[in-house]
Specification:
The chain is mostly helical and about 160 residues long. The protein contains five helices and no strands.
């Protein structure tokens, strides 16, 4: 039988995988970027995703999954937390505009996921980790939205 702890371990492990994918996504997008400023921003975001992965791995090793306040697997499943961790695919033919839209959606989903986890942990140190990750993902989303506006809606 799957325990609450195992359910959260699966979710945090999936979040780690998504951070790895985000890193790879931003590195590829930076190589494909025609604008030097965009490439720099994307590389910066990629390096921050590595830090996010490290924070999640440290939380996992630090027993974060023992600190969540859900008492049953059904309670965890009812929260539908894995909806925030869906993979949003890109096609090889995706335009730079498509790449930014997907990146913005990924960052928004990650922000929501980390906010939800911060509200579920009974441990202040772990809550701070998730709150920090949520704020950083929100900042990424804002930076990407600004880039989108500058490149694709310059007259607005």
């Amino acid at each position: 039988m799957v325990t609450v702890q195992q359910t959260f371990e699966k979710l945090v492990s999936l979040a780690i995988k998504r951070e790895e994918e985000a890193h790879d996504f931003y590195m590829k997008a930076s190589k494909d970027s025609e604008l030097k400023a965009s490439a720099k921003l994307l590389k910066d975001l990629a390096s921050q995703e590595v830090i996010h992965k490290q924070k999640l791995e440290a939380a996992l090793k630090g027993g974060v999954c023992d600190t969540f306040t859900c008492s049953t697997v059904a309670e965890v499943e009812k929260l539908d937390l894995d909806q925030y961790l869906v993979d949003i695919p890109l096609r090889p033919s995706s335009s730079p505009q498509d790449v930014l839209i997907v990146a913005i959606k990924r960052e928004a989903a990650a922000n929501s996921f980390y906010k939800a986890l911060s509200e579920l942990t009974g441990n202040a140190a772990h809550r701070t980790v998730f709150e920090t990750l949520a704020k950083e993902e929100e900042a990424h989303k804002t930076r990407l939205q600004n880039m989108y506006d500058e490149v694709f809606q310059p007259d607005m």
